[in-house]
Amino acid sequence: MRSLVLSVLVLGFGTVSAFPSLSSRPRSSAYANAPSSYPYTSSPSDGLPGTGAGGYLVPDPNDALHAFHPPPDGAQRGPCPGMNVLSNHGFIARDGITDFDEIVKAQQDVFNVGWDLAVFLATLAVALDGDLVTQKLSIGGDATNRTALLTSGILGSEGGLNTHNTFEADASLARNDYYTSNGDDHTFNTTLFSMMTSTVSSTSSLSSPLYDLTGISLYRAQRWNQSVAENPNFYFGPKALLLYGAATFLYELYPSDGPGGVPDKATVESFFGAVPSADGGYSAQPERIPEGWYNRKTPYTLVDVVEGILEMYLANPVLFGGNTAPGHFDAIEDDGGFFEDGRLKDGITAESLVCLLYQIALTDFTPDCTLSGGLKLPEAVLEYVLGKLNPIFGPLGCTLVTGV
After folding, report:
1. Cα distance between residue 129 and residue 300, in whole Å
2. DSSP classification of residue 377
3. CA dist 403 → 9, 124, 368, 392 (Å)
4. Which 8-state DSSP code applies to residue 148?
5. Strand 235-236 relative to strand 321-325: parallel, antiparallel, unpaired?
6. Of the candidates 234, 243, 244, which has an alpha carbon nearest to the alpha carbon of residue 329?
7. 221: part of which helix (H) or strand (E)?
8. 156 FRET partner, CA 20 to 30 A, in 9, 21, 336, 342?
9. Under CATH, which number does the domain 1-168 receive?
């Protein structure tokens, strides 16, 4: 009966538009989609594409709506520096409770993320960690009473981006593994940031380190080795490919002018909220866009990030699988298509890898999954995800799931 109710909510009635009262529910003290005289990539507020034309000063010095402010009391912040930055500048709600359309718009306006990649990331975030009816999401911890249609959460607990092994995963750049930190997988770890800075200094320059492909690829492999050695529950499944995608942001999205700029220390420190200390270490502060920062001129598309994933992984390949004990890693079995001997198969192309991401995205939404509240995941949820992703992956030549 509960599955039937959810199916009606998601498919029969749609989402927020079916519940007029939702539009009047308070969202934030600084709603991100308030009118602005600075359209940036001119992306609309309904999740549709913007112009794709970048090279804008973001935020404009006269754009008071998107000036930096520290998080207000009670605001949600989480494991993703980029999402924290968007919230601290009001491109998504400053309380950290955002929604699908807002995420898609903000990624385009601030970073000039391509619409297809913006939709892919927003779909996974909302479907895995948010509410499929309201399409709301906490960018930090559980805020079910603020994201769900009903404050009790008819789909069970909605843990936000902090939820382990959904969007957040082990061996991230600057957050602890869940099982080595008493469940704190979201707080910025300044020691790990120092480790990353030391690594990229060794591959570029001690005085002017670059957080580029060479350095970040090496650091990703170092974090894998660290997790194998220290985390008895370390899991590095195929979805970990998304970690490589996120790591490309340091040199594709964060530099002023994107790939035409320099992924230097001051820029990356600002986006991560890292403050150099006199002892050579770091302290933490809220993440922010650097002063005088311009976004990339051309969109960073889904195909672009897949090419970046492949390039970074192949530079320092590691095994996919998981630990059975600290230092004892079991690699995944060959699947006859994408993986061989625990690694991406030799000769795999970006065209193949993009379709693997489509398959990975659907893995969590098969109809026999169950939610944290015990409710059997209905086919309606998979239909929602397919409705978002099929228009993106179909033109890329992927074999689509068209019915459940």
Report:
1. 24
2. P
3. 18, 19, 15, 16
4. S
5. antiparallel
6. 234
7. helix 213-230
8. 21
9. 1.10.489.10
Q: Are 300 and 253 in contact (CB under 8 A)?
A: yes
Q: Rounded CA gap, 145 and 143, in Å?
A: 5
Long-range contacts of 383-392 (CB under 8 A, 24+ apart): 383/10, 383/11, 384/10, 384/11, 384/127, 384/132, 385/123, 385/127, 385/361, 386/362, 388/119, 388/123, 389/119, 389/120, 389/123, 389/358, 389/361, 389/362, 392/116, 392/119, 392/120, 392/302
Query: 377 φ, ψ to 5°?
Result: -70, 115
User: Quick one: residue 397, left, alpha or beta (phi over 0 = left, psi -120 to 50 = alpha)?
Assistant: left
Angle between helices 190-203 and 213-230 (to 10 degrees): 130
Phi then psi for 321, rounded to 5 degrees? 155, -140
Positive or negative: CA dihedral 147, 150, 152, 156: negative
Write out pLDDT tens, residues 174-224: 999 999 999 999 999 999 999 999 999 999 999 999 999 999 999 999 999
- How many of the other CB atoms lie within 10 Å of CB of 281? 14
Alpha carbon distance 304, 54 (integer Å): 16
13 pLDDT higher than 80: no
CB 132 within 8 A of CB 154: no
User: Where would I find the beta strands (DSSP E) of 35-82?
Assistant: none
Domain ranges (residues) in the chain = 1-168
Alpha helix positions (H), 236-329: 241-252, 265-272, 302-315
Top pLDDT among 213 and 401 is at 213
State the residue for tokens 């609309």: 44
Phi, psi angle pair for 326, to nearest 5°: -55, 125
Quickly count: other Cβ atoms within 10 Å of residue 275's Cβ. Answer: 13
The closest alpha carbon to 223, from 281, 175, 270, belongs to 175
For 121-224, where are the E strands, in sequence order? Answer: 136-138
Per-residue pLDDT tens digits for 62-103: 999 999 999 999 999 999 999 999 999 999 999 999 999 999
Bridge partners (DSSP) listed for residue 294: 57
Q: Are 33 and 46 in contact (CB under 8 A)?
A: no
**Residue written as token pair 């306006």:** 109
